[in-house]
Amino acid sequence: MKIDIITVVPGLLDSPFNHSILKRAREKGLLEVNCINLRDYAINKQGQVDDYPFGGGAGMVLMAEPLVNAIEDLQQHTSYNEVIYFTPDGPAFNQKTANRLSLHQNLLLICGHYKGIDQRIRDHFITMELSIGDYVLSGGELAAAVVVDALGRLLPGVLSDETSALFDSFQDNLLAPPVYSRPEVFRGWAVPEVLLSGNHKRIEEWRQEQSVQRTKERRPDLLEGE
Ligand code: ADE
């Protein structure tokens, strides 16, 4: 999968793709991530990419022209399955969307900054909008990092145990069960006996029960979902 990201602050994305699972995914050639600096498409030598909003009001707006120039330049080389804009007024990103997006070949992500991007870009170039939660970030970069992380770990071959993403929280509208590691007793707190039993059927049943119980307690809304 190839993910191109247009941003005015590429430095914000230096770290997230260079560690741990995403780093390995890139090294294995399973995931390619490219950050494109919107300032390379600035409208003048001063590097201008934003301007005041018509009608007044606080904050700056990313202008249509540099964005279109960047998008159309990238589209010359790549046919994108989706052109995604991150915005708090978009539909909420969730595991179902992550699963669906992880099947695509090429994605273009657009990060807003300041007050957002010119609405005409949203109307004519963006094919999908996403919010990562009901709070306002200073830009879409951290949202892009969240989405790339969620997608990257779903790509076949990325996780060492290929099935492990299948048991993540949310994959079947259930939260994941508790996990324990050594020692068997820590400060007097013992690991549930069933996990030490070696009985795989009982362990599976216990995990399923724990998942359902956790979901009922913490996220009953998930059980009402589709
Ligand atoms: N940009 C600013 N806030 C955001 C959010 N909550 N989700 C996605 N993009 C954003």
Structure description:
The chain has 226 residues and is α/β, with parallel strands linked by helices. It has two domains: 2-152, 3-Layer(aba) Sandwich (Alpha/beta knot), CATH 3.40.1280.10; 169-223, tRNA(m1g37)methyltransferase, domain 2 (Trp Operon Repressor, Chain A, Orthogonal Bundle), CATH 1.10.1270. It has seven helices and nine strands, in the order βαβββαβαβαβαββαα. It has helices at 20-27, 64-77, 95-101, 119-124, 141-152, 200-218, 220-224; strands at residues 2-7, 32-37, 50-51, 61-62, 82-86, 106-111, 128-130, 185-186, 189-190. The two termini are 28 Å apart. It binds adenine. Adenine is lined by residues 86-88, 112, 131-133, 135-137, 140, 143. Adenine (ADE) binds at residues 86-88, 112, 131-133, 135-137, 140, 143.
- List the quaternary state of the chains: single chain
Largest sheet entry: 5 strands, parallel
Radius of gyration: 21 Å
Overall, the morphology is elongated
> What portion of residues is helical?
25-40%
CA(first)-CA(last) distance: 28 Å
**Superfamily (CATH H level) name of the largest domain:** SPOUT methyltransferase, trefoil knot domain
Mean pLDDT: 96
* Class derived from helix and strand content: alpha/beta
Q: How many domains, in number, for the residues?
A: 2
Our estimate of the beta-strand percent is 15-25%
The first-level CATH class of the largest domain is given as Alpha Beta
Order of helices and strands: EHEEEHEHEHEHEEHH
Low-confidence stretches: none
Tell me the CATH architecture of the largest domain. Answer: 3-Layer(aba) Sandwich
CATH fold-type name of the largest domain: Alpha/beta knot
Number of strands: 9
Describe the strand arrangement of the main beta sheet, using strand numbers. Answer: 2-1-6-5-7
What compounds sit in this structure?
A: adenine
